[in-house]
Amino acid sequence: MPAFWAAARAQLGEFRRDPGTLLMLVTAPFFAVILLSVTEHGGRPDLAPYALLAPAVMTSIGMAVMEAGETIFRDRSTGVLEALLTTPAPLAAVLSGRIAAITAVSLLGIAECWLVGALGFGIVVAVEHPLVFAATLLATAAGTAATGVVMAAVFVIGRNVRSFQNSLTFPLYLLGGAMVPVALLPAGFEAASRLFFLSWATDLLRDSLAPGPVAAFGPRLAAVLGLAAATFAAGFWIAHRLVRRVRRTGTVGFA
Amino acid sequence: MAPGPGRGDAEAMSITGFDAPAVDVRGRSRDFATARGGPPRRALDDFGLTVAAGEVHGLLGPNGAGKTTLCKILSTVLLPTAGTARVHGLDVVADAKRVRPLLGIVFGGERGLYARMTAAQNLRFWAALYGHRRREGRRRAAELLERVGLGPRADEPVETFSRGMKQRLHLARGLVGDPRVLVLDEPTVGMDPVSAHEFRGLVEDLRAEGRAVLLTTHDMAEAEALCDRVSFIDGGRLLRCEDPRVLGELLSRHERVRASGVPEALAERIAALPGVERVRSTGPGAVLVETGRGGAALPVLRTLVEAGVSDVSTAPPTLEEVYLHLIGERGMAVRP
């Protein structure tokens, strides 16, 4: 655990020293303005919760993936990754700490988007089921961090991380139902998306904003948590396997 | 700051075998794949080495000799292709998790630190990776920064440090886990003479604390001053393992004389002097005289000065030249 917390503190320090890493928090309100303009001028004010939630979720998952790649890229090019592998701390613990900090900070995107709705459009989207919302948000943060760990672990073997990380976010937005509920996607997409924790999480988050009752909350939250746990486990396993691979090939220090 | 088994349990003492050699490498080989499916390049070839606890062992060799490859294998960053390597009886592949707390690694150069963090933040981060909790990490970081002379600069970003200061911080990072074996890969590169002198004092302290130190260097004088034994490595093979006093003998035996403004006839006279192995032309009127026994440089100098040559200097042989002498004497072949 000391490694996890030290990595989280290091990442928070990185945000302070290099505010450029928070760029997605700058773009989130602009996305909110675009989407809310479409729903409002399209005569669908009932979609306002969707329009505010989408950029917030995209910011969270996007920051996790982008910064996961940046972290590995930076650590590899500065020789820190090589030094990390000589320590008793598992790489996955260090990655988890860093990405947990990134995810925690990315949740500020929710507040930003809600403020855009309230201050820019006079729309206050009420959280009708605050407990459902809070519990789902925590589970979502865990799953997002887990996704970042998987991505960072995969990036350990890649040397062109930057060209991948940007492209990878879009399939995640789609399969996670960030903008469009996965039930509205073609059948093949929906089946695949149900293996991704975010599709369950975004549905629950949207339901927590609607006045009606939230159906099957327990099982759906369990699906989010279970898939998040499976993603974490996959991240640790992939990190272990790929670190062994770069040890075998001797490419740990290659930048 | 005496070294310990990490968290100090008696079981670890018995299992890891602190009575075993600190480093024991046998038949170690490491191949690297080459581009376009060519034959693998062998960086270490049937390499063997033993370092006792409390020993400072120098590893000398030119670039590409295999020194860093050995350091990386010992520090578990690189998997070997064949052979065994043990640290206090623990195999670096099978028992890597238990080896890491026993080892501190200081890679040369400026890599391996967070440039925007302060020195103290860096050390606290690395201390946590060795299992130290926050308060202990703070204490340890402060203690080590003082020890390497960076206490007054503890709260300054590493990117503002000189190369020598970064090297010192690297050394502190290597010590943060309280290792029993310290692997130093060209640790004095970039250090000014005063810092290098202080560094040598620090290594002496580490030896006195019973830690084993494996030191790779190009600097013959550094190896001679610090090491209990030195190993010559080239082409991934161990050429010789010697007491450093042998190095001193080699250095004095193979002294070289450089001179300019030397007529050809004078060069021929010098070549005929006893103990002169070779006179090489290094430019118009410039020569490099290589001697092959102690005291042979003196008649060379006398002859040059008596002939009116005033631009004369002497220098010890380079590492590569010592190799050539070593190999020539022992009939070994240098690998390409």
Description:
The complex is a heterodimer of chains A (255) and B (336). Chain A has 255 residues and is mainly alpha-helical. Chain A has helices at 2-17, 23-41, 48-77, 80-84, 91-106, 108-121, 130-155, 161-175, 187-193, 197-209, 217-249. Chain B has 336 residues and is an alpha/beta fold. Chain B has 2 domains: 10-247, P-loop containing nucleotide triphosphate hydrolases (Rossmann fold); 255-315, Alpha-Beta Plaits. Chain B contains 12 helices and 14 strands. Chain B has helices at 10-16, 67-74, 96-99, 119-129, 134-147, 163-175, 193-208, 220-226, 244-253, 264-271, 297-306, 319-330, and strands at residues 23-32, 41-51, 56-60, 82-87, 90-91, 103-106, 181-185, 212-217, 229-234, 237-242, 256-259, 276-283, 286-291, 312-315. Chain B has a 6-stranded mixed sheet with strand order 6-7-8-3-9-10, with helices on both faces. A 4-stranded antiparallel sheet of chain B has the order 2-1-4-5. In chain B, a hairpin with a 2-residue loop joins β12 (276-283) and β13. In chain B, α4 crosses α5 (134-147). Chain B is globular. The chains are: A mainly alpha (255), B alpha/beta (336). Chains A and B meet through α1, α4 and α11 of A and α4 of B.
Please name the defining characteristics of this protein.
heterodimer; A: 255 residues; mainly alpha; B: 336 residues; alpha/beta; Rossmann fold; Alpha-Beta Plaits; 2 domains; four-stranded antiparallel beta sheet; 36% helix; disordered C terminus
